[in-house]
Amino acid sequence: MTPLPPHLEEAYRAMLARFVAIPSVGAEGRGQSEMAHALVLELEALGLDTHAHETEGAPVIFAERRVHGAPSVLFYNHYDVQPADPLDLWESDPFTLTERDGSLYGRGASDDKGQLVSRIIALRWLRERHGDLPFGVVFVVEGEEEIGSPNMVRYVEERREQLAADVGIWEFGGVDAHDRPLLTCGLKGIATVDLSLRTAAMDLHSANGPVVQNAAWRLASAVAGLRDEEGRVLIEGFYDRVRPPTDAERGYVEATPRDDDVFAEHVGVERFLGGATGAEYQRRLQLEPTLNVNGFHSGYGGPGMKTVLPATALAKLDFRLVPDQQPLEIVALLHEHLEREGFSDVVVNLAEEPERPARVDPDDPWLRHAADALEEAYGTPAVVIVSSGGSGPLHPFVEVLELPIAMIGVSYPGSRVHSPNEHVRLVDVHRGTYATVRLLERWAGLAPPD
Amino acid sequence: MTPLPPHLEEAYRAMLARFVAIPSVGAEGRGQSEMAHALVLELEALGLDTHAHETEGAPVIFAERRVHGAPSVLFYNHYDVQPADPLDLWESDPFTLTERDGSLYGRGASDDKGQLVSRIIALRWLRERHGDLPFGVVFVVEGEEEIGSPNMVRYVEERREQLAADVGIWEFGGVDAHDRPLLTCGLKGIATVDLSLRTAAMDLHSANGPVVQNAAWRLASAVAGLRDEEGRVLIEGFYDRVRPPTDAERGYVEATPRDDDVFAEHVGVERFLGGATGAEYQRRLQLEPTLNVNGFHSGYGGPGMKTVLPATALAKLDFRLVPDQQPLEIVALLHEHLEREGFSDVVVNLAEEPERPARVDPDDPWLRHAADALEEAYGTPAVVIVSSGGSGPLHPFVEVLELPIAMIGVSYPGSRVHSPNEHVRLVDVHRGTYATVRLLERWAGLAPPD
In a mutagenesis test of the B interface, which of A25, A217, A321, A355 is the best target, namely the one with the most B β-carbons within 10 Å? Predict the structure, then answer.
């Protein structure tokens, strides 16, 4: 590993401290414009032509510098962060970057300010290594990723020409639990829906149980029938559009190093769904679509008893989808399933803008460069992940802009992303930023300076 | 109807005002001893030998005056009340008795202070009518009815001799929606249980859905299998001990005046379970045991989405039982059912002390007197209800003390018992108290004074 030069490590720490100090919590609608402004200053300092593009939500910060005849690299990142609560579980103030034991703590220290700063510092480093940036750079930094990127698809579609590039680097990435660098090549799609039900005008005394339908039981019954004990979704047509994995994808999934035993111990689970271990565990995580119940609430939940017959019930679901499933079609299938099963009184509402699944080809030559750069920076081969189990607005970048996208970065499984005590390890900042530098050099056809 | 004499109406109002002013909310553990003391003074003023009997919870106020050679009547009542919240829905202070439009408003104005005061005033009236009380009187007034009477069974069993009586008057009663007097002859039993489940050591990101079991889904699945769409309980053995109704019980159920249409409109229900109307609706309410889901809670329930995979789930159930079902046996059957269905990870806990079902014979001569007294007081025949859909500590009084029990009183369906703006109508106080007077005269073999 080639470490960041000390002055760039210092610059990383200082820029991240400025960013973390701005509580740009999208869900709370605060700090967005201040953060956007701070980001514009940093991107302009890189010599990029920088603009705040208005959307129906928070502005997208767009920056570019094109180099005639050279490839352009698009960086997708976001400047919003998750809420910091529960505050009492933080060991230091979430909005004051704090260094402890070789790590930098704060909300956004990893997701996504720490990643974004790593890319900016990588570009500075490249300029120092080569006197200039001899390739095109495009930044797309949105402010609504943590609330589901509701305006990203339209933004990319409307600015397709302006965003044109040859290859992209995604907002996150890092190492696995054994410090092996990950090269993730896809994200699942997501559709989030609320199921709600009313069986009477008001909650009633449970003495009416023999005659009035119980909303909690009825919605439990509807939800129970949506999948089976091993997680298989029972909605007719749900799997129809699932694209069978290619031999290459199957090969990468089978080659993913085993870590289900470590995870099982960490989360206290004795048996995974389907009894999955090893390659089957990885296949499920990377390639299987699912239906999750995020929450179910009806009636009384306090201590002791309350003999109420609840008139309303609410279940919150998310579907994680794989290519070529279509989120809105899946929601329509859910509708039809409920009708068919006699649950036409269950109201289905989209909770958030859905996201479509997307993958890039791990064997694309641009991605092979990424694997090589990672091996060089980390001294160990990259682990190719065909698809993350998570979601994000990857689809328009892959399908509209037709970009091969590399997901690499400075995170690790213990970064506590979205949780109290989020942090980035300095060791990951050094090697992750160096990997980015080497990848950009490879893509631009530059030899590393002596 | 013979109204209460004005000075007794005034005495009713004044005593109820004193009682309502004491917030004896059992669930909040406040006002109990002050209320017990106020009650002791009133019962002593009636000339009864009055004691506060300690229990493991709130004391039972016991009062008696025996008359050699005459029958003894036991009054079961309670001096605790439900919590007053939500406070903002009260039109007057819940702990200040307030008269509006011919009704007296306040927490406990009906349940059970209003009923209790009616019985005390009835005894005063009887003394005025006959110069003395020529029959035995026993009061058992507990302070924990609203939290499930956890100490009543043991209390009755331990003081079986001391409580001996010939007949009893229960803590509640009144008229139906058409102002017909009700003579209720039974209560259902109740067992309340919490079902809880843990599938992982912590809530996880829902990207883990393909491999980690979802606690919300799994408990929904367990709960869904406990009953069917029309309310039939699917737990093996659940109905085994249900005693078939006698011809007389069947006859009373069929003769119950139809009021399901009024209730359907009031609660906004288009179809009752099993499509029940008329006599079948009454049969279900009075004779069918049920399983109710009082609440179901797991995971996220706020606005928008949160892509969490919940590791825990909680469901709160109540079983309403009929003779000769045994609450603890039913809980054991629930256990066995869950084991058999593969839900051995669902933890079953009793939420509160269960109560056994009990009924008295509507054709018992003591009860026939009650029907006659009601018809005399209300000018219309009493409606015999074989069993209320609700529960209470009736079983030890019927089965241990072997008392025929009449459930009569001063309530009506709009009394808003357990809700904001609880009240008693003065018209019900007049005729309900008079019915009590006439019933006691009939039981004691006294002719009404000229």
Answer: A217
Which residue shows structure tokens 């390639």?
A287
Q: Map residue A350 onto helix, strand or coil.
A: strand
Q: How far apart are CA B129 and CA A216, in angstroms?
A: 54
Q: Are B289 and A206 in contact (CB under 8 A)?
A: no
Give me the residue from A214, A216, A294 closest to B299, CB to CB. A294
- Domains of chain B with CATH codes: 6-187+357-444 (3.40.630.10), 189-242+289-350 (3.30.70.360)
CA distance A333 to A353: 17
C-beta separation of A219 from A298 below 8 A: yes
SS3 A66: coil
Give CA separation, A6 vs A10, A13, A15, A295, A315, in Å. Answer: 6, 11, 14, 47, 51
Q: What is the pLDDT along chain A (450 residues), one digit of tens a residue?
A: 689 999 999 999 999 999 999 999 987 878 899 999 999 999 999 999 999 999 999 999 999 999 999 999 999 999 999 988 889 999 999 999 999 999 999 999 999 999 999 999 999 999 999 999 999 999 999 999 988 899 999 999 999 999 999 999 999 999 998 899 999 999 999 999 999 999 999 999 999 999 999 999 999 999 999 999 999 999 999 999 999 999 999 999 999 998 899 899 989 999 999 999 999 999 999 999 999 999 999 999 988 888 899 999 999 999 999 999 999 999 999 999 999 999 999 999 998 899 999 999 999 999 999 999 999 999 999 999 999 999 999 999 999 999 999 999 999 989 999 889 999 999 999 999 999 999 999 999 988 887
Report the candidate in B67, B371, B313 with the shortest Cα–Cα distance to residue A216.
B313
Q: Which amino acid is at A426?
A: L
Q: How far apart are CA A249 and CA A251, in angstroms?
A: 5
In chain B, how long is the greatest CA-to-CA distance? 84
Phi, psi dihedrals of residue A378, rounded to the nearest 5°: -100, -15
| Inter-chain touch B294–A314, beta carbons under 8 Å | no
Nearest by Cα to B127 from B8, B41, B9: B8
CB count within 10 Å of CB A340 equals 11
The answer for B 271-330 residues in CB contact with A (under 8 A) is: 272-273, 276, 281, 284-285, 288, 290-301, 304-310, 313-316, 318, 320
Residue from A233, A199, A237, A235 nearest A219 by CA: A199
Q: What is the ipTM of this complex?
A: 0.92
What dihedral angle (degrees, nearest 10) is formed by the CA atoms of A48, A54, A59, A65?
Answer: -10
| Rg (alpha carbons) of chain B, rounded to whole number | 23
B114 three-class SS = helix
Contacts of B24 (CB under 8 A, 6+ apart): B30, B31, B32, B34, B35, B79, B80, B81, B108, B143
* CB B135 within 8 Å of CB B70: yes
Q: Contact, B425 vs B412, CB < 8 A? A: yes
Selected residues 2-41 of chain A with any CB under 8 Å from a CB in chain B: 27
Question: How far does the CA of residue B1 sit from the closest CA of chain A (Å)?
Answer: 32
Tokens 């499984």 — which residue? Answer: A413
What is the C-alpha R_g of chain A? Answer: 23
Task: Decide if A206 contacts A309 (C-beta within 8 A).
Answer: yes
Neighbours of A185 (CB within 10 A): 29
Residue A270 three-state SS: coil
Q: Provide the chain B residues 42-101 that lie in CB contact (below 8 A) with chain A.
A: none
Cβ–Cβ below 8 Å for B269 and A199: yes
